[in-house]
Amino acid sequence: MTTPASLPATGQATAEPPRAPLPADLPEDGLLAVRDLTVRYGRRLGCAEVTFDLWPGEVLGIVGESGSGKTTLLNALTGRVAIDGGRRLYAVPADDGGGWVDLDTLSEPKRRLLMRRDWGIVHQHPRDGLRLAVSAGANIGEPLMALGARHYGDIRSQALGWLDKVEIAPERIDDLPRTFSGGMQQRLQIARNLVTGPRLVFMDEPTGGLDVSVQARLLDLVRGLVDEMGLAAVIVTHDLAVARLLAHRLMVMKEGRVVESGLTDQVLDDPHHPYTQLLVSSVLQV
Ligand SMILES: Nc1ncnc2c1ncn2[C@@H]1O[C@H](COP(=O)(O)OP(=O)(O)OP(=O)(O)O)[C@@H](O)[C@H]1O
Predict the structure, then answer these.
(1) ipTM score of the complex?
(2) What are the boundaries of each domain within the chain?
(3) How far apart are the first and last CA of the chain?
(4) Contacts of 116 by beta carbon, 8 Å cutoff, 6+ apart
(5) What topology does CATH give the domain 32-128+200-283?
(6) pTM of the model
(7) Atom 1 of ligand 1 has which residue's CA nearest to it?
(8) Is residue 62 predicted with pLDDT exceeding 60?
C-alpha cells in the first residue's frame, strides 16, 4: 500500500489499525473500489454486500425505490454511517504516490484530509451542505482556506469565478444563502464542493425538492461541470430520468442489495431483473 507523500505523518496518538492485505482484484486504473459493504441498523438491513469499482471520470447512478438502501450506501461510502462489514478502497492521485489506500485503516486525520481535498459531497438539502450564517462568497472560499489558501484577493476572485460558473450573479457574493432560492442554494452548494477541484463527488438526490424547470437547469449545469472537470461521481436518485441524463452506469438496489448493474442505456432500455423491469415501467412508486 502506498501512502500519499503530502498526507501528515502518523504519530502515536493517530496510530492506524492493523492493515489487512488489499483485495487481489483491485483494478489498476480504478478510483474507488467497494467490496461487500454492509450496514445494519439494529436488526434492519441498510445495505448488504455491495461491491463495485468506479473509474476516474465515470458517473455511477444508484437507483431504486424508497427504502432500497441508496442513501445508506452513499453515507457508508462517505463515512457518515458506520459499516458492519466490507471494505472501501480509494486510489490516491499519482502526485501523492499513487496506489490504493484502505479508507478504514487510514488514520482519521489522513482520511479527513483526503476527503476534504479529493472528495465533494452534495446533499439533497442545501442547508446540510452550506453554512447558512455566512455569505455566498465565504461558502465558496472556506474549502479553499481549509486547504491552506490565505490570499484574500485570490479567494474572492475564485469565489466570483465559481458564482459565474453556477449562474449566480456576482453582486450576490456578500449575501447570505438563506436569501437565495432553493435552486440557487443548490448551485451554491455545488460551487462549494467543486471549488477545490475534487476527483470524486457524491450527490444525494441533487435535484430532489426542486421545481421541474429548476431541476432541468440544474441537471444541465451538473452535467456540464462533471464533463468539463472530468469528475467521477456517485449519484443517488429515485428519478430514472435524472439517472439517464447523468449516469454512465447504473446500480439498481432493492432491499439493500444490488440486483442489477450495467451501462445506463442497457439497464433502462433492456432491464433483466424483474424488479428493474417494474421500476422502468413505473409500476413501482420510486
Ligand atoms: N437511521 C436509520 N435507522 C434505522 N433504519 C434506517 C435508518 N436509515 C435508514 N434505515 C432503513 O434502512 C433501509 C434503507 O434506507 P435508505 O434511506 O438507505 O433507503 P433509500 O433508498 O435511500 O430511501 P429514500 O429514497 O426514501 O431515502 C430502510 O429499511 C430504512 O428504513
Answers:
(1) 0.96
(2) 32-128+200-283
(3) 41
(4) 143, 146, 147, 196
(5) Rossmann fold (3.40.50)
(6) 0.90
(7) 41
(8) yes
